[in-house]
Fold:
Amino acid sequence: MKVMAALAAAVILASGAAGAAGGTSLLFIGNSFLFGYGSPVRFYRADTVTDLNHEGIGGVPALFKSFTQQAGLDYDVALETRGGMGLDFHLAEKLAVINARPWDKVVMHGYSTLDAAKPRDPAKLIATSRQMADVLRTRNPHVELYLMATWSRADETYQTRGAWTGQPIDVMARDVRAAYDKAAAAAAVKTVIPVGEAWTRAMQTGVADRNPYDGIDAGKMNLWTYDNYHASTYGYYLEALVIFGSVTGRDPRALGQNECSAYELGLSRAEAKALQDVAFDQLTATGAVTAADAAPAKAGNPDRCVAAR
Structure:
């Protein structure tokens, strides 16, 4: 019995050391807005992250991982996602997976309209954010928690039956952010990641088109994919940049216009730079990063992307 106990202790210690050696552990909890539905991002670099549901997803977590590798940071990235679900699903169905290990940092979000059954009602988001925070803190009382405020949906704004029909496109993002602020206060999380506001900024500054239903203006990006609901590669790239800056405190412009993932996903240098600028401007507006954090952008050679893997 003593031998068995000693062996068990050794295994536990070894597994703990292996986890520590893997860098800062970061778990993403969410839905299709994280796993990259509707774009090549969905299965992008899936071998660089751990999909706890074994579905072969890379998604925005893999983009984040790529950015950290290029920035010389060591993150052990995992994800637990399910399309069309809020945090209530993960609490009911996935706690055994989520709580299998303690996490250093967790980024999570709820359903895009706040509540699938009651759009615009923040009550479920507030309650489930607090519940999930309590669960995560049972494994690591010092875990850093981030809530990600999502973007305005064109289908919910420009279509006749949308929950934000007839209102300017930025209103949904503002309402969502206000709900996440309340949830953050209830759950005592570290910060709210302003993805939706970054999307709004991209539209207000002319980087992105405001209304995909009337065509895309020349020289502008469409942040939505074909369903005008989920993100395009551009939209997920901007999302990942904002998460990267919020979690690491690094200036996303330091990745440079020759950033590897932009190259691999087919973004031009000008597009990568424009989206990095938008992310930086939004992050500085909310105090997540400052210009002093910026490093000179590296002169790029796409060959270095292979080494970054």
Summary: The chain has one domain: 23-308. The domain at 23-308 is CATH 3.40.50.1110 (Rossmann fold). The first strand starts at residue 24 and ends at 30. The first helix runs from residue 2 to 21.
